[in-house]
Design brief:
86 residues; elongated; mainly alpha
Protein backbone atom coordinates (compact mmCIF):
# COMPACT_ATOMS: atom_id res chain seq x y z
CA UNK A 1 0.00 0.00 0.00
CA UNK A 2 1.32 3.40 -0.94
CA UNK A 3 0.74 6.17 1.60
CA UNK A 4 1.03 9.82 0.67
CA UNK A 5 2.57 11.98 3.36
CA UNK A 6 2.13 15.68 3.94
CA UNK A 7 2.74 18.22 6.67
CA UNK A 8 1.67 21.86 6.75
CA UNK A 9 2.88 24.53 9.15
CA UNK A 10 2.19 28.22 9.52
CA UNK A 11 4.02 30.90 11.42
CA UNK A 12 1.09 32.70 12.96
CA UNK A 13 -1.89 34.77 11.95
CA UNK A 14 -0.75 38.34 12.25
CA UNK A 15 0.71 41.08 10.07
CA UNK A 16 4.28 40.08 9.25
CA UNK A 17 6.33 43.09 8.15
CA UNK A 18 7.81 42.62 4.67
CA UNK A 19 11.37 42.77 5.99
CA UNK A 20 10.62 39.65 8.10
CA UNK A 21 8.99 37.54 5.35
CA UNK A 22 12.11 35.59 4.39
CA UNK A 23 12.98 34.72 8.01
CA UNK A 24 9.41 33.54 8.64
CA UNK A 25 9.35 31.47 5.45
CA UNK A 26 12.71 29.91 6.34
CA UNK A 27 11.49 29.04 9.85
CA UNK A 28 8.28 27.48 8.55
CA UNK A 29 10.20 25.58 5.89
CA UNK A 30 12.64 24.22 8.50
CA UNK A 31 9.74 23.10 10.71
CA UNK A 32 7.97 21.39 7.80
CA UNK A 33 11.17 19.61 6.73
CA UNK A 34 11.85 18.44 10.30
CA UNK A 35 8.29 17.15 10.76
CA UNK A 36 8.25 15.50 7.35
CA UNK A 37 11.50 13.69 8.15
CA UNK A 38 9.73 12.02 11.09
CA UNK A 39 6.94 10.83 8.79
CA UNK A 40 9.38 9.58 6.15
CA UNK A 41 11.13 7.32 8.61
CA UNK A 42 7.81 5.84 9.73
CA UNK A 43 7.10 8.00 12.77
CA UNK A 44 3.62 8.80 14.00
CA UNK A 45 1.83 12.00 13.01
CA UNK A 46 1.88 13.22 16.61
CA UNK A 47 5.67 12.87 16.73
CA UNK A 48 5.96 14.74 13.44
CA UNK A 49 3.79 17.59 14.71
CA UNK A 50 5.73 17.77 17.97
CA UNK A 51 9.01 17.93 16.04
CA UNK A 52 7.68 20.70 13.81
CA UNK A 53 6.41 22.69 16.79
CA UNK A 54 9.68 22.35 18.71
CA UNK A 55 11.57 23.46 15.61
CA UNK A 56 9.37 26.54 15.37
CA UNK A 57 9.66 27.27 19.09
CA UNK A 58 13.44 27.11 18.80
CA UNK A 59 13.39 29.70 16.00
CA UNK A 60 13.61 33.21 17.51
CA UNK A 61 11.67 34.63 14.54
CA UNK A 62 8.68 32.37 15.17
CA UNK A 63 8.74 32.00 18.97
CA UNK A 64 6.94 35.16 20.03
CA UNK A 65 4.52 35.94 22.85
CA UNK A 66 1.48 36.13 20.54
CA UNK A 67 1.65 32.40 19.81
CA UNK A 68 -0.83 30.19 21.61
CA UNK A 69 -3.44 32.91 21.91
CA UNK A 70 -6.02 30.42 23.20
CA UNK A 71 -4.09 27.97 25.38
CA UNK A 72 -7.18 26.93 27.32
CA UNK A 73 -9.61 26.65 24.39
CA UNK A 74 -11.17 23.19 24.16
CA UNK A 75 -10.44 21.31 20.97
CA UNK A 76 -9.98 17.81 19.65
CA UNK A 77 -7.10 16.89 17.41
CA UNK A 78 -6.65 13.51 15.77
CA UNK A 79 -3.04 12.91 14.81
CA UNK A 80 -2.51 9.30 13.95
CA UNK A 81 -2.53 7.01 11.00
CA UNK A 82 -3.97 4.30 13.21
CA UNK A 83 -7.74 3.70 13.21
CA UNK A 84 -9.55 5.17 16.17
CA UNK A 85 -11.91 2.84 18.01
CA UNK A 86 -15.38 4.27 18.61
Amino acid sequence: MRVLLAIIVHGGAWYIPPDEWEAHKAGCRAAAVAGFAVLRRGGDALDAVETAIVTMEDDPTLAYPQSGAFPTAPFFLVLSRRPIAQ
